[in-house]
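REQUEST ID: PR-0412
SUBMITTED BY: lab tech R.K.
PRIORITY: routine
TASK: structure prediction, single protein chain
INPUT:
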Amino acid sequence: PYETPPFDKIKNEHYEPAIDKAIKEHQNEINRITMVRSMATFENTIVALEESGKLLSRVASVFFNLLGSESNDEMMQIAQNIQPKLSEHSNAITLNEALFQRVKAVYDKRYESNLTPEQIRLVEKTYQGFENSGATLTGKDRDTYKELSSKLSQLGLMFGQNSLKENNKYEMLLTDEADLAGLPQMIKDAAAAKAKAKSKEGWMFDLSAPSYIAFMKYSSRRDLREKLYMAYTTQCAAGGEFDNRENVKQIAQTRLEIAKLLGYPD
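STATUS: complete
OUTPUT:
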């Protein structure tokens, strides 16, 4: 009734077909905008574009929120499968010449069309979004943009998956009740359940938000708060298989290349 996702009914095997269907529906919506024969207007172009892709947004928001909060190997593999599709779909929209020309037509006449200040701002943001996504590039530059944006998408996915894996790997198992000083009973019960779920005795805390924030907020054990804090703030930056420092360098370099391609100094 509140249009919230029915998480209890969603299974991992639902995501890819849902993403495929949503991408197809979104592309059909874009096609309908570009096939309009009348002059491009705020309503038939900018508003129509704003209203498009709602199914894709809903499906992707469910998937990526769960990926970031309750991830596992299967979810990460699904992400590897769908991220290239989403990147390709995004490029197919922002580099759609017919669509961009309609957006540009509205943009060029934004001060002559009796638009409100808010509508003008939306037109400008929409146009700038296309511009910063390579729409004004031509020839080899456009192909280079596609390659770089695809690379950046993949690097971002690798960065995120390393963070999730490092997050999932860390455990702080406490076996002495004195170590729980300051924690409310509800937090203790959750930590005990987490330990039991992993067939361990005691109370387990990790770097997931409910566990980490609760311990940092309520624990009166400064030494244990420091231990957990250091684990949290050095994720993927202290060596090991999930170290992200090289990914960070490549992400920054790729963004710089895209920026320069688009005419920005940095």
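NOTES: Residues 66 and 75 are 9 Å apart (CA to CA).
REVIEWED BY: pending
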